[in-house]
Amino acid sequence: MDRFVGRARLEWWANQAMCLETYTIDITNTTGTAGAWQATGRHTPVLDSIQREGWDFLMEMDPYFSVVFPSKDNSGIFVRVLEAEDATLTLIEVPEGGWPDEQHPDLPELNA
Fold this sequence. Notes:
It is globular, with a radius of gyration of 14 Å. The protein has one helix at 49-61; strands spanning 5-15, 18-31, 37-43, 64-68, 76-83, 89-93. By secondary structure, it is mainly β. The chain starts with a strand and ends in a 19-residue tail after the last strand. Helices cover 12% and strands 45% of the residues. A six-stranded antiparallel beta barrel has the order 1-2-3-6-5-4. The longest helix has 13 residues, at 49-61.
């Protein structure tokens, strides 16, 4: 995918058969420093207090989601999600097999 600006869905899967939650986001994807897929986005609509509680719980459990774009095949990209204090989401594609030694070369400093 070269570029996408629009709506997508974040899905949090407990296992291959059970999706526990989905969140709609407005998203803009880009290409990272090593040619890896990454994107920024925001929840749409903004999460209410109950949804926020569920989101925070899932992020604490495991901040990995599938981002699914509107298409015929509903295929997704496995991403690590980071949330900045202003609620901006950063999504970075997880390489097949994961990052070596849990190093994430394209993760931005969100506290800066």
